[in-house]
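Section 3.1: Structural characterization of target chains.
Under the original work plan, the team committed to producing a structural model for every single-chain target entering the pipeline before any wet-lab resources were allocated. The record below documents one such target. The sequence was received from the expression subgroup and is listed exactly as submitted; it comprises 343 residues.
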Amino acid sequence: MSRKKRLVTLAMFLLFMLCFMLAGCGASKDKEKTADAEKESRIPVTVESVHKGTLERKIPLGGLLQAQEEVFLAAKNPILRIESVPVEVGDYVAAGTPLVIFDARELDLQLEQAQLAYERNQELYEAGAVSQFQLEQAETALANLQLQKENSILTTAISGFVASVTAMEGQLAGAAPLVSVVNTEQLELTVQVGESYVTRLKKGQEMAVKVAAVSEKPFRAVIKTIAPQADARTKAFPITLVMKNSQNKVKDGMYGEVELVIDRREDILVIPQYAVLDDEQKKIVYVVESEQAQKKEIELGLTLGDQAEVVRGLSAGEMLVIEGQYGIKEGTAVTSVVRGEGK
């Protein structure tokens, strides 16, 4: 073969290889474009794994919290005149603290005279000048005045906060209460429970009491009493709970609320209610399998808030579509993101 023919043959070969490579690149680009188009056509959805949990149906029961201990203090001698009132509403007082002091000047004079009379009668008794009866009379008169002296200061028998003060300096004591003291370290809450639920409760059972005015965190309480008969007015059974309030955050008269569990389902499949769709009077959801949406007909049980029990139609571990379900159907290609992973 001549040199000229060899050059022509080589040129044709190179031209053929160049065309082949260009054709291959074009096919590869076409495949990439097709893949990109398919990817772009997928519907984005958010999924979460179907899991087991617990649902509780509760009913709220409320009432006013009341202190276990409250005393109303009045003078034992109504004719005494009030000399001073050393406490104000809101003050904390320990047991034995003076609350009202009465004018005892006249009483002090009578007490001094009675003391002298008793001492004189004692000397006369020892000398045989008076009888034992006379001595005992003098002793009784002295003891009576000493007791009146003790009653000239009104003190509290319990520790707590001064809840009310009606005493005023200069006025007579009278028979009405002058000061009240309340101990709020333990509070009681009485709620009315219907006959269908009262048998589920027992004395000593713990319950959580919510006091919205104080804290979102509930307080621990214990059932103290369960009435043996229904209240004639409410037709329900009064239940009294005792709640510790050692820091005195909760005030007497605040509103407290407990939640009574009337239905509890454990170890059940729980899904968000917003994942459920209505399809011709059927309840359906979508799950993702092999990057495709699969429709599942389900049966719901107990529903609470945004949570629902699945009785039939789903299994634990399936990837449930919880966002984007309105834009897909059976067999739709999807791109799924597990809840929380995209954040």
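Residues 3-41 form the longest helix (39 residues).
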